[in-house]
Design a protein that fits this description.
799 residues, Rossmann fold, UDP-N-acetylmuramoyl-L-alanine:D-glutamate ligase, Protein-Tyrosine Phosphatase, Chain A, 5 domains, 11-stranded mixed sheet, 33% helix
């Protein structure tokens, strides 16, 4: 057996050999192992290693210069000339590369021990527990990033907002005193390395009968956690709702509890129902936290279910103990989108939602099914792949009662995870035990067959969940590919049907990019895009939407509009055809189509000696958009100039109303929220064209002096009663604040501009920063004037 090291010895070896030395990773493609590879690369070490297949994690390491081989061969190890071999818990000791290390007298170490060594180099925060530690550690690392703490971190899954999923920040000092940064790590208890960690702070989520292939029983697991807690120098934040943790942490003067229990130091109360974040339309959860009698505040997360609320409360409690303010914490956690395969929504359209989840323990399964049950009134279809023969054998009775929330349930064969089979322990046997307990279930041996059975059973309104820590994710993504093909075929078929009902002059496109059609230059695609050539074609398109139950949206010039990165489902209708852009002068009136540009209206009015419309020169929109928003600039507003409007309802019928018959509000015309503006009759007063030109020039100069030239959506916020929004933002010192390619304009604080690379999410995040600062500093709740529409970037479905 080669020399095995503890965490202190690992650090001593790394320091002695120094950056540039090679470290060999056996099983480099695992999330934990690949994360360790990123940490070592950050520290300047060379990384080599091997795995049986090339996956995303391996590709990420290869892109950074690591040398990762496919397959395990002793000569690969020897060629790398490493000073240390690190192996994952999935690697057996008869592995050829482990044997080569033994022969070469190269020290070996488990992954968890190596991670514990690196954690000790900074202000370690270890997240431990049988369930939820990946999401919790990812959320904590993300929150510390948002709080500008620039942490190091190691998360045991891919995380879209933490790329890569592990990072060591060696040169950052978090204060003028030179204090080390925090290092957030997911500490795995499955292989007995938990007690190697000696963090400054820890979060303990739960203790359960799990990993019984390694531990003798639950008492042995509790002993492991007790040793770990004893090695935590600072705060141990634990869940008061877990009886095992309550008994373990009782009497620990450094222990802080959180949870729904009335006895918790940080007491959580969930708000009823789901919430929709202002940052995108994904459902999430809201909860309030009390510390003793003090209400810290209300918090929103984009995750759902009581377990995710509990995990988020752990993060809130620890961050508050680290002296971050509740309002700062609330902002820091609200935009987190979760980790891969943790209640991950991988598809959604008008008919179905599909989730992929790593859950493989009965407790995780119950929590996930309960969370998804709240999402939709439709059926919940569940496909489950048991993980490991030993776990299935040990928890057979618990599995039989874990799926009561499923309307339909399928089991596929057990994922072995390198374990040898156990006689009589099969998914077919588990399915039989479930049926004996009254749980309807079908057994499907192969993943291909599983996907086919699930697809065959699906009905509109269903939510589909794939569960398991093995390769069942392949079946989940196979189903998504089939649904996307169906979606593309449906769009093509609907397009052909609609095209047959429209005149040749009407433009009809599939998957039209919308960013180029907005003044902010961000946004995703429209499923179907139509530019009608006439009112009759517009009416036909609306009737088609009603018949096919498709949502539709009217798009003008795209000012005062923010389209999310996931685009618009259904049909986007743009009235930019010349038929809708006509401007006719009749006496002292201008008869304008909804698609006419406002500047063109102002110029035409000047040409005919009609004043009162000069302010339109400074608004970058169309007549239809200006009517809908009752747009204004330079002291004027749209409905002050309107005599009458013409509009179409959703059935395709046209109507006219005089201005006296229309209710209008500040930046809003309620009538046109449900109906489509076709045009308006505007009134002007006779005046000399030279005088009108002079006024227009004043408006133009004022606009260019006070508004940025870079792409924007116009004013982002409505003016509060007490102070103009731009002045408030300026006073808060937010001009120049940047998120990605979006930046608060230095010219006017109420404008967010796109410097060329901004996404809609960049803009939305920047909006949230401004709103949070205004709320905390002034107690002002800013309300967006810009209209935010569409789906978030993770939406992968269609109409």
């Amino acid at each position: 057996m080669p020399t095995a090291l503890n965490s202190n010895q690992v650090n001593a070896l790394l320091d002695a050999k120094g950056p540039g030395a090679a470290i060999y990773l056996v099983g480099a493609g695992g999330c934990g192992m690949s994360g360790l590879g990123h940490l070592l690369l950050d520290l300047g070490y060379r990384v080599a290693g091997s795995d049986l297949a090339v996956n995303t994690e391996v590709l990420q390491l290869l892109a950074r210069g690591a040398v990762i081989h496919t397959g395990h061969l002793g000569q690969q190890f020897k060629a790398a000339r490493p000073v240390l071999l690190v192996y994952s818990s999935a690697i057996r000791m008869d592995n050829p590369e482990v044997i080569a290390a033994e022969q070469a007298e190269v020290p070996i170490v488990q992954r968890g021990v190596a991670l514990a060594a690196l954690l000790s180099r900074q202000r370690g925060i270890a997240v431990a527990g049988m369930h939820g530690k990946t999401t919790t550690s990812a959320l904590l690392a993300y929150a510390l990033q948002q709080l500008q703490a620039k942490p190091s971190y190691a998360v045991g899954a891919l995380v879209q907002q933490l790329a890569p999923h592990a990072k060591f920040n060696p040169n950052y000092s978090s204060s003028s005193s030179g204090a080390l940064p925090y290092f957030v790590a997911e500490a795995d208890e499955s292989d007995g390395t938990l007690q190697e960690f000696e963090p400054e702070h820890a979060i303990l989520l739960n203790i359960d009968a799990e990993h019984l292939d390694h531990y003798r029983d639950l008492e042995a697991i509790k002993t492991e956690f007790q040793i770990f807690a004893g090695k935590t120098a600072g705060k141990t934040v634990f869940c008061a709702d877990d009886p095992n943790l309550n008994s373990l942490c009782a009497g620990n003067p450094r222990a802080i509890s959180y949870g729904f229990a009335a006895t918790a130091d940080y007491r959580v109360k969930q708000k009823s129902g789901l919430v929709s974040s202002a940052m995108d339309i994904s459902s999430g959860a809201a909860f309030a936290v009390w510390k003793g009698e003090e209400r810290l505040g209300e918090f929103v997360i984009r995750l759902f279910g009581a377990k995710n609320i509990s995990n988020a409360a752990a993060v809130v409690a620890l961050l508050h103990q680290l002296n971050f303010q509740p309002c700062e914490i609330a902002f820091a956690i609200r935009s987190f989108r979760g980790a891969a395969r943790r209640q991950e929504e991988i598809y959604r359209d008008s008919f179905f939602r599909v989730f992929d989840d790593y859950g493989h323990h009965p407790s995780e399964i119950r929590a996930t099914l309960a969370a998804l049950r709240d999402l939709s009134p439709g059926r919940l279809l569940v496909a489950f792949q048991p993980h490991r023969f030993t776990r299935t054998q040990a928890l057979m009775d618990e599995f039989t009662s874990s799926f009561s929330g499923a309307d339909l349930l399928w089991l596929t064969e057990i994922y072995a995870a390198s374990e040898p089979p156990i006689a009589g322990v099969t998914s077919e046997a588990l399915a039989g035990a479930m049926r004996e307990h009254g749980q309807p279930v079908a057994y499907v041996r192969s993943l291909d067959g599983l996907c086919a059975r699930v697809r065959e059973a699906m009905q509109p309104g269903d939510t589909v969940l794939f569960l398991g820590a093995g390769d069942i994710t392949k079946a989940a993504h196979q189903l998504v590919r089939e649904l996307q093909k169906d979606c593309a075929a449906r769009k093509e078929a609907l397009s052909k049907i609609l095209a047959g009902r429209l005149a040749p002059g009407t433009i009809l496109r599939i998957d039209e990019m919308l960013a180029k059609k907005t003044t902010l230059r961000v946004g995703g695609r429209a499923d179907l895009y139509v530019e009608p050539a006439s009112e009759s074609d517009l009416a036909e398109a609306l009737k088609f939407c009603a018949e096919e139950r498709l949502p539709f949206m009217i798009l003008g010039r795209g000012s005062n509009l923010l389209i999310r990165d996931g685009g618009i489902r259904g049909v986007v209708i743009c009235l930019s055809n010349p038929h809708f852009c006509r401007i006719e002068i009749r006496g002292g009136e201008l008869h304008c189509g909804a698609g006419a540009k406002l500047r063109a209206v102002a110029v035409e009015a000047k040409r005919h000696g009609l004043s009162g419309l000069e302010f339109l020169e400074g608004i970058p929109g169309t007549v239809g958009g200006a009517l809908r928003m009752n747009a204004g600039a330079m002291g004027g507003w749209m409905f002050r100039a309107v005599k009458s409007i013409r509009f179409m309802d959703s059935t395709g019928a046209a109507h006219e109303k005089l201005v006296a018959e229309i209710d209008v509000e500040y930046r809003n015309c309620p009538l046109l929220k449900e109906n489509i503006a076709l045009g308006a009759v505007l009134q002007g007063e006779p005046a000399a064209p030279e005088k009108i030109a002079e006024t227009m020039n004043v408006c133009s100069q004022k606009r260019w002096r006070s508004q940025p030239a870079a792409p924007s959506a116009g004013c982002i916020f409505k003016n509060p009663l007490t102070v103009p929004a731009g002045k408030l933002i300026d006073e808060l010192g937010l001009k120049g604040t940047r998120v990605g390619g979006a930046i608060v304009s230095d010219v006017h604080g109420n404008f967010i501009v796109n410097e060329g690379s901004a996404t809609a999410q960049d803009v939305l995040n920047l909006i949230e920063i401004i709103k949070q600062k205004a709320r905390v500093a002034r107690g002002i709740e800013l309300e967006t004037e810009v209209e935010v529409v569409g789906e978030n970037a993770s939406y992968r479905g269609c109409l």
